[in-house]
C-alpha cells in the first residue's frame, strides 16, 4: 500500500521538486501540496496522510504553530520539518511542538525518502548537523532524576539521534523485543507515550 504524503511549502519551485522527488519512489503518493498551512486541520482530516512535510517559514501561520495545532487533535501522524533554519531555538521549538523529525532543505535530495521511511518505522530523522546540535545541547546531565539504568540511558540517547527500534537493536546487539521493552520503561519513567514525546522531553530537559 502506498504511504500518503501531505506537503506544506510556500516556495512553489521547491514544492514541485518535492512532489517530483516523491514520484520517483513507488512507495509514496502525494495527496496534497499547499503553499500555506492555514487550513491544515481540515486538509489532514480530509486527506488522512501518513506523513506531513512541513516548512517552518510560511505566510499566515508558521510551521511550528501548525504542528502545535495538529497535535491538539492528532498525536500519531508523522511530521517532518523541512527548513533552512538550523538554529537551536527553531529546532527545539519544532520538536517540542511535536515534530517527528527535522530535515534541512539542503539535505532534501539525498535524505528525504530515507527520512520518511525512517519516521514511519518509528524513528526521529534529523539532518546530521541537527542531530549533532541536539546531542551537544544535552551535555548537562539531568537524567538522574528519572533513575534511568545505564542501558535505558544509552537507548534514550540513540532514540534522540533519530534511530528506529530496529536500528537501535542493530547498534546495541539486543533483540528487537528487548529494545521495545527498554523503551517502554523509558516512556514510563518520562511519563510519555511515544518516541516523539520522549525526544521532545529529553531535549527540553537536557537529558542524556
Mean pLDDT comes to 88
What overall geometry do the principal axes of the alpha carbons give?
globular
Query: In DSSP terms, counting alpha (H) and pi (I) runs of 4 or more, how many helices?
Result: 10
Rounded to the nearest angstrom, the distance between the terminal CA atoms is 37 Å
Question: What is the CATH architecture assignment of the largest domain?
Answer: 3-Layer(aba) Sandwich
Give the tally of structural domains. 2
Strand and helix layout:
Blueprint: E1 3-8, H1 12-23, E2 28-34, H2 40-47, E3 51-55, H3 63-73, E4 78-83, H4 88-97, E5 101-104, H5 108-120, H6 128-137, H7 150-160, H8 165-172, H9 176-190, H10 195-204
Parallel strand pairs: 1-2, 1-3, 3-4, 4-5
Helix pairs in contact: 3-4, 4-10, 7-9, 8-9
Keywords:
208 residues; alpha/beta; Rossmann fold; Arc Repressor Mutant, subunit A; 2 domains; 5-stranded parallel sheet; 5 strands; globular
Amino acid at each position: 500500500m502506498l504511504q500518503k504524503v501531505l506537503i506544506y511549502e510556500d516556495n512553489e519551485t521547491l514544492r514541485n521538486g518535492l512532489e517530483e522527488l516523491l514520484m520517483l519512489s513507488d512507495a509514496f503518493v502525494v495527496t496534497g501540496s499547499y503553499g500555506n498551512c492555514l487550513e491544515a486541520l481540515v486538509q489532514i482530516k480530509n486527506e488522512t496522510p501518513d506523513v506531513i512535510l512541513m516548512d517552518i517559514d510560511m505566510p499566515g501561520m508558521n510551521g511550528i504553530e501548525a504542528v502545535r495545532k495538529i497535535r491538539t487533535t492528532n498525536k500519531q501522524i508523522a511530521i517532518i520539518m523541512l527548513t533552512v533554519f538550523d538554529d537551536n531555538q527553531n529546532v527545539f521549538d519544532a520538536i517540542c511542538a511535536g515534530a517527528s523529525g527535522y530535515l534541512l532543505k539542503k539535505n532534501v535530495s539525498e535524505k528525504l525518502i530515507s527520512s520518511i521511511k525512517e519516521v514511519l518505522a518509528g524513528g526521529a530523522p534529523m539532518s546530521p548537523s541537527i542531530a549533532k546540535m541536539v546531542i551537544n545541547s544535552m551535555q548537562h546531565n539531568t537524567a538522574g532524576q528519572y533513575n534511568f539504568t545505564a542501558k535505558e540511558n544509552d537507548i534514550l540517547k540513540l532514540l534522540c539521534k533519530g534511530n528506529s527500534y530496529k536500528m537501535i537493536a542493530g547498534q546495541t546487539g539486543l533483540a528487537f523485543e528487548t529494545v521495545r521493552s527498554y523503551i517502554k520503561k523509558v516512556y514510563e519513567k518520562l511519563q510519555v507515550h511515544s518516541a516523539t514525546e520522549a525526544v521532545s522531553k529529553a531535549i527540553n530537559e537536557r537529558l542524556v
